[in-house]
Amino acid sequence: MEKKLLALLCLFFIGNLFSQENQFKLLKTNSTEVVAGASISNTSGIVDVSDENGIFSLEAEYLPGSFQISALGFETLEVHLRSSQSLQQIYLRPTSENLSEVVVRSTVIPKTLRKVPASVNLVTKTDFNRTDATNVLETFNNVPGMFVNQGALNTNKINIRGIGARSQYSTNRIQAYFDGIPLTTAEGELTLDDFDQESLDRIEVIKGPTSSIYGAGLGGSINLYSKQPTKEEARLTAKTQFGSFNTQKQVYQASNTNKNSSLFATFTNLTSDGYRDNGNYDRKSALVNGSLKTSKNGSLSYLANFTRLKAFIPSSLNEEDFRNNPEKAAFTWGQSQGYESYDKGMLGGSYIHSLFDNFSNTTSIFLSFRDAYEPRPFNILKEERVSAGARTKFNLNTQIFELPSEISFGAEYYNEWYETGTFQNLYEDSPGEGSVLGERISNNEQDRNYANFFAQVNLEFTKKWNLEAGFNINTTNYSLTDLYTQDDVDQTGEYGFDTVFSPRIGTSYEVDEGKNIYASISHGFSTPTVAETLTPEGQINTNLEPETGINYEAGFKGNWFQNKLYTEVSVFSIQIENLLVAQRVAEDQYVGINAGKTNHNGIEFLTTYRFLVGSDISIKPYVNGAINFFEFDEFVNNDEDFSGNKLPGVPKYTVNLGVDIKSDSGFEFFGNFRNVGEIPLDDANSGYTDQYSLLNFKAGYSFKVFQGLNLNLYGGVNNALDENYAASIVTNAVGFGGAAPRYYYPGNPRNYYGGLQLNYIF
């Protein structure tokens, strides 16, 4: 009997031994910080995932055995594990940040950044965190080759490699998309001020002509991507921020992600009294985006955005006021209390479907509108715009001449309906009341059709050498209906621009592991905007031609010292023809003309280095910049020859020096020093702005209040040196009635901000 009992006890013990789970705990190297969400796999696949305490379990039947442990932000570990009755600790080493291996989504055929034969820059969460988040455009000033003229929160213009610098008050000649939905209108105008970095995952900027991909984009393209789910969870976020000039920002976000769908909703409200008189600003924005897996081979993504803005305009100042009284508004804008206001929205969806293993399609449809009212001293402008369109793209993995190849082709079409009217502003007849609507001066309707047909092929000659070639065919036509019958001019008719063929070819070669050289030639174009075609009398100049240009570029992208150091260098030359010039004919009024050629030659560079201090502090110093040699090739305007002069509105150089410091304790620090060279004020180069330097700091601390609730406290200072500088200029300003020309938009003096953010994870 005793022998039977002993045998049963042995069987029970052995059975329990074979069925027991062995527990392991994942920790960050040389620290007590746990690593959650790591995947543990063997030859049969994933066998477990570490929990919020860094613990995973393995049944005894798997042990001893070899396993691979991987987690985002850590080096993959190959390890041999054995059974043990005690908790075993395993350490993972953090990886160095390596943006060069990020897959670029904004090219027609996705490819890692290092292998793209073009100058592409990423604006990431780290870049967003460096700023005060009042305007997403501020992050672009840290991209070499980009320069943002910021006259006020609502008065911004972006130029890339000097293209777009001659625009007076807005951004044009740059294509932009949000999750594949066009943001640039069919006439070429772009406003990015409506979007907040809190709703963005990242931004990809392709510099130089991108017409072979996106059509009218002589300066380049900017692609915004919304936040994407990283794991299945529900989250609520609330953020409030206060700063100088009574600037306030509130952000409310909610998200829910599961296996087959995700939903993100963001509401923001930004208000400010502004540094200058007549500078009040109020913007409310709501954005909803998400995705839904509809089948094994298909998924749907969607996006909706609405913005309501009312922003007063202090306008530009002459040099004396700029230096001695920068807080004042321009006299006429102050007297008329000029402002811009609009309701603006867009709605779009994209469906991605894998037709076969090597053949897929992405199709997007979109609808947008804008209803605007803008009282200016010289007149009151009313605009209504509705746009609708679609874009489809096919991707095929195949072989050409027995070489691994990828082919992409597709089309984009959208139609825009404008109604534009101007009215007299009777503010001088009613002192103190601001702008007063008077009689109509003009009324036009415009129906613009815009179509692109594009294709690209990538050939992989060897594992190190690849070639890509593509082209785009664009047609832009518009019909004009002149509804104003009180004058003798009737411009009603059908108009259009010549069909534009834009080819591109580029190649990349890996000279050593992680180091690539590239070269490319591309063609680009941009059509005139409605503002450029509009005369002071409210008529349309139908004789303007698109600007065209060719970009020649070569560069290097490479990693060094086990991917801790990353460097980029690019040299380029862009030749622009049919240059569109804003010719000033009255105070704050311009007429666009085709008047010459420009050469845009330059050098851009970028270096980042990342290293660890101890086990828990990451330090990333960086330096980037651009040296510009932009000048008129042939340019004669009003019998004056400006050939050989420097292009106005663009600094001679820009340099950024900075450091990002982060620790596992939750502390982070961002410091940035920016130096901007002189900027020519006009075509004659009769004056320049002073070079200036800006020093910005920001620090924050994040910690867990209790399980699921995290709090982030932060604060910063902008322009710590209290520099008096021109944040933007109006090129070719002319004084009327004996007044000095108003070139300058003063930058904000030293200013402070601080805030807190709560995140609750269910």
TrEMBL record:
Q: Which Pfam families does the UniProt entry name for this protein?
A: Plug, TonB_dep_Rec_b-barrel
Principal localisation: membrane
Query: Would I find DNA repair among this entry's keywords?
Result: no
The keyword Transport appears for this protein: yes
Q: Which residues form the TonB-dependent receptor-like beta-barrel domain?
A: 264-719
Domain TonB-dependent receptor plug: from-to ranges: 113-218
Provide the protein name: Iron complex outermembrane recepter protein
Membrane topology recorded in Swiss-Prot or TrEMBL: Multi-pass membrane protein
